[in-house]
Specification:
This protein is 66% helix and 0% strand. By secondary structure, the protein is an all-alpha fold. Among the domains are: 86 residues, RNA polymerase sigma factor, region 2, helix turn helix motif (Rna Polymerase Sigma Factor, Chain: A, Orthogonal Bundle); 77 residues, Winged helix-like DNA-binding domain superfamily/Winged helix DNA-binding domain (Arc Repressor Mutant, subunit A). The radius of gyration is 27 Å and the shape is elongated. The chain starts with 20 loop residues before the first helix and ends with a helix.
Length: 235
C-alpha cells in the first residue's frame, strides 16, 4: 500500500483541523498524506498516554503508538463511522502496547534459582538494597516540599494543631494542653486542617495531571513524521 509521493517541492495541503472523524477516516482510506498528518496530530497525545500507562517508558510508548498508527491506517476501511474514531484508535494502541509488554517479558532474563548459583552465592546478592534511587529521593523531596508549603499556607490556628497532631504525633489531650485550648477545639481544627490540605493538594494534583505526559512539541512532531515516513514506504 505504498502511496504515490508528490514532488518534494509541492507542500502538503493542510486540512481543516475541525474535520469530522468520519470524513478524516475516509480521507485516510484514500491515502491522503494531509489526512494522516491530521490524524496523528489529533490523537497523538491520547494514544501516547494510553501506551505510556501500560509500558511505563516513553520510548517504548512511542514505538507502540507508531505501530498502532500503521495498523490503523492499513485497517482504516474497517472503521465504522457510527463509532468513535478515538475509541477505535485507543483500542488498537492498547492491544499493541500489551503485545509489546508480553514480548518484552518473554525475552527478559531469567533470574536463577538458588540451586543454580555457585556455592556461597546467595539469591539476593545481586539485588540492590531497599534504599531509594536518586530519582525516588528527588520525588520524595519534592513531595515533602509541596506538603510543607501547603501546611505553611494553613491558617495559623489550624496549622499549629495539625503540626502537633500529624507531624509531632501528639494526642488530642497533649495538643490541648500544649496550646491551652479545649480538646473539642483540637478535634475541630485538626479535622478542618486536614480538609483544607486535601483541597489544596487536590488542586495541585489536578494541575499536575493536566500536564502529565505532556505531548505538544517535539515528541508530537517526531511521531507524526515517523508515521508519515513509514506510510510513504509502505509501512
Amino acid at each position: 500500500m505504498t502511496a504515490a509521493l508528490q514532488p518534494a517541492a509541492h507542500a502538503v495541503p493542510k486540512l481543516d483541523p475541525r474535520m469530522p472523524d468520519a470524513e478524516l477516516a475516509h480521507r485516510v482510506a484514500n491515502r491522503e498524506e494531509a489526512a494522516i498528518r491530521l490524524l496523528t496530530k489529533r490523537y497523538n497525545q491520547s494514544m501516547f498516554r494510553t501506551a505510556r500507562a501500560i509500558l511505563r517508558e516513553d520510548a517504548e510508548a512511542e514505538d507502540a503508538v507508531q505501530e498502532a498508527y500503521m495498523k490503523a491506517i492499513r485497517a482504516i476501511d474497517q472503521f465504522r463511522s457510527d463509532a468513535k474514531l478515538s475509541t477505535w484508535l485507543i483500542r488498537i494502541t492498547v492491544n499493541e502496547a500489551i503485545a509489546k509488554l508480553r514480548r518484552a517479558k518473554r525475552t527478559a532474563d531469567v533470574i536463577p534459582l538458588a540451586a543454580d548459583l555457585p556455592a556461597g552465592e546467595h539469591v539476593y546478592d545481586n539485588y540492590e538494597s531497599d534504599r531509594p534511587t536518586p530519582e525516588e529521593s528527588a520525588l520524595r523531596d519534592e513531595a515533602r516540599r509541596l506538603m510543607e508549603a501547603r501546611i505553611d499556607a494553613l491558617p495559623e490556628a489550624f496549622r499549629a494543631v495539625f503540626v502537633l497532631r500529624a507531624v509531632e504525633e501528639l494526642s488530642v489531650e497533649e495538643t490541648s494542653q500544649a496550646l491551652d485550648i479545649p480538646e473539642a477545639t483540637v478535634r475541630t481544627r485538626f479535622f478542618r486542617a486536614r480538609a483544607l490540605l486535601r483541597d489544596a493538594l487536590a488542586r495541585e494534583m489536578d494541575s499536575a495531571l493536566e500536564q502529565a505526559f505532556h505531548f505538544a512539541g517535539a515528541r508530537c512532531e517526531r511521531i507524526t513524521e515517523a508515521v508519515v515516513a513509514r506510510w510513504r514506504t509502505g509501512g
